[in-house]
Design a protein that fits this description.
The chain is mostly helical and about 60 residues long. The chain has one domain (about 5-55). Helix content is about 75%, strand content about 0%. The chain is built from 3 helices and no strands. Helix 1 packs across helix 3. It is globular, with a radius of gyration of 12 Å.
Length: about 60
């Protein structure tokens, strides 16, 4: 896995950890989550799998 992909995964993990708290999102952030939720189930499952693997490495 290249360094850029590792950085992207780390950013996604951070984003998901923050979502556990009660935070207000900007319109842009909300739009991103809407976009993310539009992925098909296989892509979402793959994304979740990657995040879980990244969390285990921390």
């Amino acid at each position: 896995m290249d360094d850029e992909l590792k950085s992207q995964i780390k950013r996604f993990v951070t984003m998901l950890e923050l979502m556990e708290d009660d935070v207000e999102l900007t319109e842009s952030e909300s739009n991103f989550l809407k976009w993310l939720s539009s992925w098909d189930q296989e892509k979402i499952d793959n994304f979740i799998s990657i995040v879980k693997k990244a969390r285990k490495k921390q």
